[in-house]
Design brief:
It contains 2 helices and 10 strands. It is 8% helix and 40% strand. The protein has a single domain, classed as M1 Pyruvate Kinase, Domain 3. The chain is mainly beta.
Length: 130
C-alpha cells in the first residue's frame, strides 16, 4: 500500500526542515508554513513510483493533487548532507504537485491514483438531435 512516510516543510531557503505529523494543503498554494507555498512542499512516500503520478490526479488521504513536474534531486541536497546521494536518488527525487482539493495531509495517509489529466481533458460526446 502506498502511503505518506514523512512530511517536512522549510520556512526559508537553506533553513532546517521541520518534521510534521500533519499539514494543511492549500488550494492554489501548497503546504501551509512552507517556503514553497506557491507550489507544494515535500513529503516522502513508500509504495508508489512518483513518475507514475506525473500528469495524473491522485489522492493523499482526502486531499486531491495533480502531478505536474518531476523534481529530481539537486546538487544543493548533496552539499547539505555532505555525502554522494544524487546517484541513488535518480528517478526517486520528488514530484511537484498542484493542490486541486485542499485539506489536511497526514503521515500514514494512503496515496491512490485517480485519473490521467489527459482523460480529464478528453471531449465528451454531445447528445444528437431532439
Amino acid at each position: 500500500m502506498a502511503q505518506v512516510e514523512a512530511i517536512h516543510i522549510a520556512r526559508g531557503a537553506s533553513t532546517p526542515m521541520q518534521s510534521l505529523d500533519e499539514v494543511e494543503a492549500v488550494v492554489g498554494g501548497g503546504l501551509a508554513g512552507d517556503r514553497y507555498l506557491e507550489g507544494i512542499g515535500f513529503y516522502s512516500e513508500r509504495g508508489v513510483r512518483l513518475s507514475d503520478l506525473l500528469e495524473r490526479r491522485f489522492h493523499v488521504g482526502d486531499v486531491l493533487l495533480e502531478g505536474v513536474k518531476d523534481c529530481p534531486p539537486c546538487d544543493h541536497l548533496q552539499e547539505l548532507v555532505g555525502k554522494p546521494v544524487l546517484q541513488p536518488l535518480v528517478n526517486r527525487g520528488g514530484l511537484r504537485a498542484r493542490v486541486v482539493v485542499g485539506g489536511v495531509l497526514k503521515v500514514g495517509d494512503r496515496i491512490t491514483a485517480v485519473e490521467s489529466v489527459a482523460a480529464l481533458n478528453r471531449p465528451t460526446a454531445s447528445p444528437v438531435g431532439d
